[in-house]
Amino acid sequence: MLHYYEPEQDYGTPPVESSESVSLSIDGVTLAVPAGTSVMRAAALAGIKVPRLCATDSLEAFGSCRLCLVEIDGRKGYPASCTTPVEDGMAVRTQTPELAKLRRGVMELYISDHPLDCLTCPTNGDCELQDTAGEVGLREVRYGFDGANHLAAEKDQSNPYFTFDPAKCIVCSRCVRACEETQGTFALTIEGRGFDSRVSAGGVDFLDSECVSCGACVSACPTATLTENSIIEQGIPEHSVITTCAYCGVGCGFRAEVKGEQVVRMTPWKAGKANEGHACVKGRFAFGYATHPDRITAPMIREHIDEPWRRVSWDEAVNFAADKFRAIQAKYGRNSIGAISSSRCTNEEVYLVQKLVRAGFGNNNVDTCARVCHSPTGFGLKTTLGESAGTQAFASVEKTDVAIIMGANPTEAHPVFGSRLKQRLRQGARLIVIDPRRIELVNAPHIRADYHLPVNPGANVAVLNAMAHVILTENLHDVEFIESRCEKTPFEEWKAFIADPAQSPEALQQATGVDPVLLREAARLYATAGNGAIYYGLGVTEHSQGSTAVMGIANLAMLTGNLGREGVGVNPMRGQNNVQGSCDMGSFPHELPGYRHVSDAATRALFESAWQVELDPEPGMRIPNMFDAAVDGEFRGLYCQGEDVAQSDPNTQHIEAALGALDCLVVQDIFLNETAKFAHVFLPGASFLEKDGTFINAERRISRVRKVMTPLAGKADWEATIAFARALGCAMDYGHPAEIMDEIARLTPTFEGVSYALLDELGSIQWPCNERAPRGTPTMHVNAFVRGEGYFAVTEYVPTDERANRRFPLLLTTGRILSQYNVGAQTRRTPNSTWHEQDVLEIHHHDAQERGINDGDWVGIQSRVGTTVLRAKISDRVRPGVIYTTFHHPVSGANVVTTDSSDWATNCPEYKVTAVQATRVSEPSAWQARQQQFDQRQRQLLVEATMDA
Amino acid sequence: MTGQQIDHLVTMANQIALNFGEQRNLNEAARRTAEHLQKFWTPAMRQQLAAYAQAGGDGLSPAVSLLLEQQRSHERSIHS
Ligand code: SF4
Ligand code: SF4
Ligand code: SF4
Ligand code: FES
């Protein structure tokens, strides 16, 4: 889908949903539109463009520019078409001599205070002011530039991605409204009145303002006032390709706007159902990493990690790796090798990795990074509801009356969903936040959470149990739903467990740390406010009881009948772009694609006949099992695709020991990441701009990723895996990722109807997509649960071993911030670092004072497994006893401190709770010093890399 | 038998049993833990745990000891 560049069509005002249809005529064209539609939009739908400047279809009409005037039979004057709703039988004229004169007059005023440098203006050819001047036939400007004007106003270039040039501003306030309505940040205002009015970022420059650099104002601006720097530098694009963001699990649709093979702008795609034309700073602006000089573009090998790399051909690299892997298996057995795939890669690519392991390695030792984030979601939702996925579409939030946000921070980690949620909250939906930290939503512009339950880290299950206890014992549960939809015996067993006074908010207060009165009120609100939706994130899953908490969430939803329709549901906020997809694709060691257990003979037979091999019926190793076995010398070869385990997995020193013990580590990545520093074979990866494929976001939406530039290393990741597989003698014959998807569809019932052709037709598809749901499934479990009847699992609260004690009196919890993504390999290589140069330690002033720690001091954080040092930031977002950091920079070593404590059911690491001590220190830790040395040495070995003749 | 792995296996098995309600219903917890290990652990891990139990099983929780004992007697009955 290559399109010559032209801006997306703008209908002037947003669409209106209505079952009532209204008929009217515009310039003699008769048409019917939903009641409530504006005359301007109706005209656009009839193919008629009414000149306009202050209206755009992402924002509510404002009616300030007076350019969109029309004549309506039987009405006096010239109503503004953007603010006038259609009426039955209306006859509208958009072009008359009077209108032309009026519009020219208005336009003349605008242009008299606007520079006439169109030919050299960065948005020449892509400017609504220019277009509109043409549309209204402006030929002269009588006032001249002699009077007062703003032409000398200074530019604001503080934001690394866009420039604000007030000389060109027409004060249409589209930017201000975009920041309010679309983004919900309220960073901009119009200051002053009349001639003096101007756009202001709260009196400071953009960088120092509340602005989160989402780009909504830039997209909304009709002039060159707010323009992307890439456009200023490189000019407007010549074609565009629809693709999907490769950062977070929201999965925003984008138009990659390109010149030749150079992306000059990423514009959020209006028809993208996950984002509907909105984006965040990462997807919108932080794509420069794809062409960063650190990219490694040739395969490399070495016998030992103390040797310089040798750059070699693809053939030599994959043969070298294949020989090593075969030799390891010959000596240490079939199970001594395995692979880890990445949720950043496409479905087609992770599918191939698990196929390579099962069919080529002959074992099930494949795992994926979802192990360390959402594996408890898979376990918990499969157990209770029958499907390892969220139940809703994002748009469902528009019908939500009360939302619970638990262990998630949408405005930072899932910003575009965060904006949608804020819109709904501003309309009056109620909000309950359950989080140890006061996240932004607790108190944001025009939003205030009804309840914030500041749970002790590690006590989620206790809070969920107490809420269920209140709902059940106060008879607020949905008896009819439970009786008709849920399994009886487990419910009775659960009921006896949860009704016990031991589960009351009062009895559990010691554990939860939450005021029982507040907890009771919050539970009542969720049970009685109408449509209740629960959104949760890694603050739920990354605990020793992550799986239990997910089941507790599902229990709450079933208990209150909040499943199976719009506005409700259980919604995991996935971290990385393709976490859902990589799980769907059979990347866990115990299941084949579509979540079917390897012990299931019928499923195995299906794959065995397709792949012509015999498959192992026993589960393989999970990531932590692989590392343990590596340290013990039993696991010796690892193929690691696009995943930086050395930085992202807990207990760094243990991981480093494991990686260092491998005989052959094959890393496939776009950069020499921390893991690659332990590698023997480096296969250069491709960014999402360099390949075709699909991602699946948190709402089960399958979206296309489309190639906009040639892979820098000559192969996309799926091609690299195929080359490696062939070197191992494992046949893989695919000419295009579409063929891989066809195989997935043939072998996986929930994907049966999916094809690239259907994706092109529909834009995106929410699975299940099959005979019963040929166009996909926005809401799951509508009449029955996937498992048949819903299962109430008993969720006993078992406190974590990571408890504060005398030696380690504080609890460390970890999280993310908006501008950085995961281990930061991508975002650190973009100007996003402007906002977050280093990870800092948030500490409450009580704890700081007690330790003599001041803002900006070095603080040593010590757990039972390691020590690292970070700069302190005194903060009241955390409460006494809890400290907080992010993990976006390798040198921070947040994971040097996190332990091997993990979820009981899935081994998802307990990143969210580590018992630590914090002390003021004068220098970085010993690990950090070692890490720096090792890092320098490995960089040197890269510089010394030799080229094979 | 090696250190890293067996330490973790014991911790993990105990944790599973505890979460399956070991303190409320020992037999049921043992049954469900056995099922869980069968479903999610590699045969090698299960064997290591069994061998550890046979060699004394220091630190194994009651439900885990029980399920391993049940498995041993089941095997004995098959072989006899
Ligand atoms: S970039 Fe986004 S947050 Fe910043 S001012 Fe514009 S709309 Fe507001
Ligand atoms: S900056 Fe652009 S969008 Fe904002 S008021 Fe000026 S012209 Fe309108
Ligand atoms: S990072 Fe997430 S929210 Fe931001 S643009 Fe990408 S998919 Fe959308
Ligand atoms: S577009 Fe209608 S008043 Fe500006």
From TrEMBL, chain A:
Keywords: 2Fe-2S, 4Fe-4S, Iron, Iron-sulfur, Metal-binding, Molybdenum, Oxidoreductase, Repeat. The keyword Cell membrane does not apply. It comes from the Bacteria. GO terms for cellular component: membrane; oxidoreductase complex. Gene3D superfamilies: 2.40.40.20, 3.10.20.740, 3.30.70.20, 3.40.50.740, ADC-like domains, Dimethylsulfoxide Reductase, domain 2. One of its GO terms (biological process) is formate metabolic process. This is Formate dehydrogenase subunit alpha. It comes from Seongchinamella unica.
UniProtKB/TrEMBL annotation, chain B:
It comes from the Bacteria. InterPro entries: Formate_DH_dsu (IPR021074). This is Formate dehydrogenase. The lineage of its organism: Bacteria, Pseudomonadati, Pseudomonadota, Gammaproteobacteria, Cellvibrionales.
